[in-house]
Amino acid sequence: xxxxxxIVIGAGGGGAVIAKELGELGLKVLVLEAGPWYGNNKxxxxxxxxxxxxxxxxxxLDVMLYKQLLNKFEMNMNxxxxxxxxxxxxxRNRSQWFRKANQKGVIWQCSGVGGTTQTYTANxxxxxxxxxxxxxxxxxxxxxxxxxxxxxxxxxxxxATTAKEELFYYGAKKAGWNLIPTLDVTGPGYRPQPxxxxxPNENITNPNITEEQLSWMEGCTLAGHCINGCPHxxxxxxxxxxxxxxxxxxLALKTGNVCIRPNAFVIKILTExxxxxxxxxxxxxxxxxxxGEQEELRAGIIVMASGSIESPRLWLNSGLPDxxxxxxxxxxxxxxxxxxxxxxxxxxxxxxxxxxxxxxGNTCGARLDYPGLGALQSVGMSPGLTAxxxxxxxxxxxxxxxxxxxxxxxxxxxxxGCELKETMDSYRRTLNILVSTDDEVDQRNGVTLDPIISDExxxxxxxxxxxxxxSSRKRSELVNMAADLLRKAGAKKIIWTNWPxxxxxxxxxxxxxxxxxxxxxxxxxxxxxxxxxxxxxxNSLGGANPTLxxxxxxxxxxxxxxxxxxx
Amino acid sequence: MEASGREGTLSPYxxxxxxxxxxxxxxxxxxxxDYIGTVHVAGAQELHVYEYVIWILDHSxxxxxxxxxxxxxxxxSKSTAELLxxxxxxxxxxxQTLYPLNVTAYxxxxxxxxxxxxxxxxxxxxxxxxxxxxENLSIPYKNNPILVRNMMxxxxxxxxxxHYSEWTAYGxxxxxxxxxxxxxxxxxxxxxxxxxxxxxxxxxxxxxxxxIQHRKVDV
Lengths: 567, 219
Known about the structure:
Chain A is α/β, with parallel strands linked by helices. In chain A, 25% of the residues lie in helices and 19% in strands.
């Protein structure tokens, strides 16, 4: 595509959405994605060969190829260094892209068409109204129609119940919480997770249909591979988990106005400054991740949708104007991990089965929301990922801590040795809870450039996060709530891993609305430069998962771009 | 990661150090099974998980970054093994070992490998508390407390992910570049956790607690 109106940088959670919306408005859109494209027959060996250049039609989408590549093996898919879902180039013979973390933890992001939504658990709660109203430059009411549009498009549905959700609900009810079957959460309570996952096929319990046949039908098969990469469905656009590569990308291609080019890392935003337009974006410089060749591409509007680390990194590496909030204010929901181990005799009366089987159903299918504090979510993953989550702790090994009568936990810290093996022996009788805190924006946290170390894409980002006292207090309360829920559900043993501050799974607010971009998500200092990713969030949404809000804002931003520059 | 496949440059010292590391984190144990009696459950060393830990450490950074970190004549696995030895030496010097040293278990290893399994974890604790002289460490750990602390989590995380994922079943292909690995048998770690492996689906559908009614939207 030579004469694009808009260039979108990144085909992930936000970029795919804004591309589809702009394409539907009749604009020519070129999407540049740094990573590979899985399930497109122009790239039959996406991790071994450079393949084609770009794709602009759904005719190229190939569900057989998609199912072959997303093989559901956790190491092959999820290894952060060499897995198919990693932050790195398509060529798996090469290393991941280097980032520097200023604290203990993990940065969990993916390159590739679909971005991190390829591996996300598809949780789509709206922000809590109290975290938006009279705080953000836009009101919750203004966001609602855009939430509704994204929820209908993906679509978003409350998760089906399997054993682990049933146990979570049982514990929540016993702990005194009420069911709140709503999308607009104004008070505490538990509810099914609003997920971008298709409901199970009507034949899910039909013994005459095999599981393999089910996996070719429309609907979630409860296979539990949300994080490993869901390949189940009759076609790419009907895959059960609605990562953007199977939802918004096919819709974008169907407009006939969108072209997507993978393996293209944007290393610079190009600008011009003249009296009539002021400083404004005019294009980008890309680097082909296979050949290393650089190329300049131009468009009337540039949209950064490269995520909360790469968007500020790109701004800074491009030498765009100083702004004390570029890269600053990072929040990550200061997460924590609490697990309950159950006896089979206690499970049978509640579930009718002796196991929870955490690998069955939506990976995160139930939640408890508490506006003002944050949220708890049930999580069930494959065993390698489960075990590795027990390894990351701010308090070191568990042998350093002894539980007292008043502690809600039995074990605190990193598991090891026979204790770890006993815990993994109980894998099928374990319910894990992810704590997601309503953490505070602090300008000292964020993304800067390393002054010395660079890679082929420019100076590498340094990511810093320390929770505020208020955030720490909130997380402690949530941990106690999680332990109480598990205990009330009948857990015999509670493990509090005490995650460190740097667990970067929900990264937001590094290019905040009102500071770096205006309420239409256009940069204050560089006109015609927009942002459509988590970085524009004013805050951490109260602790709600960020993707849906980014997608709602991207939908709104597309409308604003069209009206301001093309109408 | 540039280099792929088996690398002949790993010294017995590095191998011994990482063998002793994964052995301390995930040891073998005996388990009582109904009708069968006592069975041996393999630990991470028997399942070659140390090879995964070494592979990841040595393939996690591209050469240009390694050059800037002045890591071209060494490797992350070697520097990390030396870091573990600094922690072990500190534990020994402080007289804080719980059990006598044993230099026969890993004859090619350093002080870390000579410690008892629990003392190895206590040496790691000293390192993550930064109770060592950071000035004396090898590149890239020298005067880099953030990386030192982070690596102690990473070593545990890699050991656990390697042991309980399908990596142990890549068998003869386990050290090949990821695109050329093939699962040769059912992963022992999955068997230990009683995980059935990749699935097409399950039947445990228990209905819905609530339903979303989508409105026709016209934004």
